[in-house]
Structures are given as structure tokens and as C-alpha cells.
Amino acid sequence: MDDDSRIADLRNDFLAIMVASAEIHGGTPISAQIMGYLLFEGRLVAFSELAQALGVSRGSISENTRRLVTRGAIARHKIKGDRQDYFALAETSFDEKLIQMAEKLKIIGDQIRSIASQVPGSDKASRLTQFASYQDRLSDGLVAITQHTSDSSS
User: Fold this and answer.
1) Do 80 and 107 fall within a single domain?
2) Among 35, 54, 89, residue at a domain's last position
3) pLDDT tens digits, residue range 21-73?
4) 33 Cβ partners below 8 Å, 6+ apart?
């Protein structure tokens, strides 16, 4: 097997892992494939290349890239003289993404805690408070991970 074929096989294996991860986390398979392809390639990728490489309709690529751009996961680029859109991963580091996720989890925990404090009945309030604490622990864990990786790289 030549190197190009081996790399294509490895990319496909990686994309399958990305899809499985997306399914666990409630993401769409196509968005996961787009993210995986951009991560694996590490360069600007044309809209048409995404559709062809992933075997997905142009409409699905359009819908999913729009969603990913809105979430800040990928960036849309234009090349002068070329009418086609190009995409790449957003310039945010993985640690920055973890910190953003941690901040969102803290907000969600606070919002749940606020609702729990207004719910009559101790069993309902207790369950909601436990879930808010779960959000806090997830957030704290993400922050700890980023601190560990920055300590390791120093």
C-alpha cells in the first residue's frame, strides 16, 4: 500500500472516530466529519473538496459549515478571484475552547441552581441542585485540564 492510500485510510479511521464522538455528545455526523477533515488536513479546504471527500451533498455541507462557523468551531475564508468558500479550523487553541466550555458549564450550573432555589419540594430542588453541582464539577475539571497542560508545556 502506498503512502497516499495509507494516509487516506487513516483519515477515514479518524473521521469514523469523530462521528462516534459526535453521536455521544449529540452532534451531527456531518459536522463531525467536517471538523475531522479540517483537523486532519490542517489547511484551507474548498467547499467542493469537502463535499467530494466526505461524499456528502453540497446542501449538507452548506448547512453544517454554516452551523460550525456560527459556533466558532471553523472559519470561512475567501480567496480573491475564487467564488468558492474555503474553510479551516478556527484559530482558537484547544485550551481556549476548553475554557470557553468551562465558562458555559458554570453559567448553566448557576441557572439551574437559580431555578432549584425557587422550586417547592425538597426532592425536586435537591435533584436540580445535584445536577447544577455536576455542571460545576465538569467546569472545574476542564479548567484543571487546561492548567495541567499549560504547566506541562512550561
Assistant:
1) no
2) 89
3) 988 888 899 999 999 999 999 999 999 999 999 999 999 999 999 999 998 88
4) 15, 18, 19, 54, 56
